[in-house]
Amino acid sequence: MAATVESHIQSTAPFDVERVRRDFPILASEVRGRRLVYLDSAATAQRPQAVIDAVNRFYTSQNSNVHRGVHYLSEIATREFDDARLRIARFINAPETHEVIMTHGVTESINLVAHSYGARFISAGDEILLTTMEHHSNIVPWQLLAERTGAIIRQIPINERGEVRLDEYAKLLNPRVKMVGIVHISNALGTINPVKQMIAMAHEHSIPVLVDGAQAAPHLRVDVRDLDCDFYAFSGHKLCGPTGVGVLYGKTHWLEEMPPFLGGGDMILSVSFEKTIFNSLPWKFEAGTPDIAGVIGMGAAVDYLTAIGLDRIAAWEKELLDYATLRVGSIAGVRLIGTAQEKAGVLSFVMDDVHPHDIGTILDQEGVAIRAGHHCAQPVMKFFGLPATARASLAFYNTREEIDILATAIERVREVFAA
What we know:
Blueprint: H1 17-21, E1 30-31, E2 34-35, E3 37-38, H2 49-62, H3 72-91, E4 100-103, H4 106-121, E5 127-131, H5 140-149, E6 152-156, H6 166-172, E7 177-183, H7 195-203, E8 209-212, H8 224-227, E9 231-235, E10 246-250, H9 252-257, E11 268-271, E12 276-278, H10 292-308, H11 310-329, E13 334-337, E14 346-351, H12 356-365, E15 368-369, E16 371-373, H13 378-383, E17 389-393, H14 400-418
Parallel strand pairs: 3-15, 5-6, 5-7, 7-8, 8-9
Antiparallel strand pairs: 1-2, 4-10, 9-10, 11-12, 13-14, 14-17, 16-17
Helix pairs in contact: 2-10, 3-10, 11-14, 12-14
């Protein structure tokens, strides 16, 4: 049977962060003799026991290939796999289950669109619009396409707060533009972009829009029907699921027009040396044996987050972000990078005369896990004139006490470099 979430988490109950934390075994760990304070969820989230159990159950009692066998284990595996896709489709309110393509993550999802959509619809002189704050995964695939086709990439600029300049975006929209790529939430800044408005603006010019939802799907209620996006990509490991699995949502009419991305088993109806007939959606884009355990685990993660409630998750994380902004932002010598009015739980900062890697190293000695670097978003680092930032990223299993520990650890950085 499909994995279910334990009933002790009720979406109508007050948010009990300590109860939630008990669902995550790793949060009880100690690091360098101190209790782990995990503030790197933008890189990868931790996994609740429900997800660990779902993956373990598959390998322990259900392991078989899907869509091929007629024996008992294959029937169970296929049912679990297909049911997970259905629950993931409901999670984002996809109109049709066949519009949910299982991939290895956002990176593959965007590469799929750039390669397949690009092969059919983009040629020399066409334009692709990307924001300055895009992750490399939503830049490099389009650059590769531009090199192959002669298309042109243009930047949608941002302001000093890390917000998209909608006035400049409007000026860039023209008949030559064949795709707009927008990150829903910036992994480097935490900015929540006005994607629904930007999609509507692009659609006024009949331009399709791809949304990178890697940071949004775990933290906000995502409704692809309401957004009216043409493509939406997100990854399992960002939303408490396994690594190496993800989703590409695409509107049916685009997916049907696009050629396959990879060739092989399961994406075909028949093969001869004269001609291959491709399978219908979604399997047309799912060549080879999928990450079955990963998809089942992702389904369990979706169940878990749904049971807690995305609105409640967003509200708690907003409370944490407000508190962290006040605590960290008030430390002498600290400058916050990314101060958009609409933000998710990402706190990027720099300190006077201290390299972010040194900040990260000292915080690690205090048991605090953050990220330091350019966060695979070098164009936005260049915009702010920085090589890197220190980044604390929050999740619904974090606490105010952990923010206090972070602030104390940052004060320790000041002490070390003042000595």
